[in-house]
Structure formats: structure tokens, C-alpha cells
Here is the input.
Amino acid sequence: MANLILGRIKASIGNIGKLKGHVGEAKGRAQEDLREREAAEKSPRSIILTKNEVQGEWDASRVLMTTMGGKTRPITTSDLAQFRHNMKLAQRNFNGDGITARQVIDLSASRPMPGFTPETDLDRAKKQITMAVPASAMNGQIRFITNAGPDSDVNRHHVTVRFNAFSEAANRLMSSKVRDSKTPKQVANWLRKQKLAFDCDCGRHRYWFRYISTIGNFNAGRKEMGFPKIRNPNLKGVACKHVLRIMAEVESSGNVLNFLAKHMEKLHASADNTAKHTARQAEIDKQKASATRIKTSQQRAAERTKAREKKAIHDAAKKVKRIVRKPVATRKIEAALASGQLSASDLAVLRKFNMTDKQIAAKLGGS
Ligand SMILES: [Zn+2]
Here is the structure.
């Protein structure tokens, strides 16, 4: 309980700690993950469902469990066919090498991984992940740090994003002069909309989603070949809350754009199309925890429609006002008629001489 409270306090502060040593920490966690995974597969009591087993090379005497269908039960050979089918369904959402930040957010909304509560990974990203900063970059691979959620046993997570179009970005920069300062920012803005691959060191990514990113070819960490028969047999969802928050940042934050632009500037000036860049601690300390606005394409479209409707109502109201409100000269004539300053017959005579309201009003004088 004390840990839980401490976790909440940590999350509410949204502190992501020291930049120094972040690469070592991330690498250490990745090595630990790899070591555990290798040991799990080597164990004589391994419960990992391997690639070849899913493909049908299945020893029927092996008892492995799945939660497919809602409750935990032993896997049968017809489950294997269903697993392969689920893989094809999931793969249909991805094409080629990588995935865009926008696709990750949209797929999380349209194919969420159902949990014990109605809250989705996207909901948790919005509520719990209040800090997400780019820490360092090397040749288009960016290391991000996020705060951990309230129930986590660590206080931060490392998310790696690899921009697959990095060499294309480098080639674009080669044709512009070194003194040209506009192009790196433009290329950075282009790069962040292109396909990428990602990895997170959290358990959710490890056990639920790493398999999907492996078969979808947008995995920036170790490959996961073991089918998630217990956690995610229907292969729903695509990314954990940390990755989702980062995807929103990659796509639309000024902070990430500036960071990427600096990386592109170094690439632009480099002699061999390689570049390294690290944020400064002061830059990170400056950033305040903030509630995240992660919008799906559907939400964006709805907002655009709403804005259009609002504008249409506004425009219509303006038009009505314009019709109702007569020109100053006309109103002046009407007032003169009402007060007797001008008679209807005099007005008729003036009209016969093709005088405009403006000219008649001028003759009436006053203001
Ligand atoms: Zn994560």
C-alpha cells in the first residue's frame, strides 16, 4: 500500500530523473530482459509457444494453456489454426517496413486490447503518462524517457523509436547548403510523419505487444517469437501507454520537433551522414508534467466537423444581421419620413431624378 501511494506521488510529480546514465540504464534493462527470455525458453518446463509450433509442428503431448475464448484451458491443434488466422488479421493492418505514429494511435483506438476494466491503453496514456521527453539520438534512433504509471515498481521507462526514413532524410539534407538553416527543421518535420519502429521496457510491451510489433515489422528491440497465448491470443491492441504517449509527442509536439531538428542539423553538418545528439538536463528539468491530449484521427475529424458547423452557424448569423441592418443612408431617410422632415411625395420626386439613398441622406444633412 505504501508503495502504491509512493507510486502515485511519483507519478503526480512526473519527475523523470537524471539524464546522465540513461543509455546505460536502458541497455541494462534490455540485457536483463534478454537473459530472462533466453532462460525461459531453455528451461525444460518452458511454456513458450514457438514459431514452428504455431506453424503446425506441434507435439500433442505438450500441455500449454491459452485464454482464447475467455477462460484458461489447454491448447488444441485447432487453436493453432486460429492463432495463425489471428496473425493474418493483425498483419493486415500493417504494411511494409514500420508503422507511422498516427497509425499506432488509430489502431489502439480501433482494436484496443480488452482488459479487466473498460479503461484502454490510450486512456491510461492520457491520464497517467504526464512526462515524455526525447533524451538522446543516434542515427535516427531516439531514446525517450517517460514517467511510470502509478502502480509501477520503477519510476521511469525507456522507449526507443527508430525512424526508418533516417537515411532518406540524410540524402535530402545532402543537397542543401550547410549554411541553410531552414532545411533541417523541414526535414525533421517530414521525418516524424514517416514510418518508424518502437520498443518499450515495460511489462505490457513485453508480454502483450512485442509479438505484434515483431510480426508487423515495427519492433525496435529484441524480436519476440513466442505467441502470446495467455495474455493476448487475439493479438489486439498495438502499444503500451508509454509508447502511445510518445507517439502523440512524435507526431505533434514542438519539443520533439526541435529535438529532431537539432539531430538533423548535426546530420546536415556531418561528413559521413552520421549524427549523435543528447538533450541537456536543463531542457528536461524545464518541462512540466502535463495532461496529454492524444487524439485519434476519428476525434480529429469530429473536431473539424464541429468547427465547420460552428463556423457555418456564425456565418449564417452574420448574414442575417447584414440583411436586417439597413445602410445608414436608408435608415436616415426612414427617420426623416417618420419625423416629417421629409414627405413621401418629395421622396418620390427625388427618386425620379435617380438620386441614390446616400445622395438624399446627404441633402437631409445632420448626422
Ligand atoms: Zn511501455
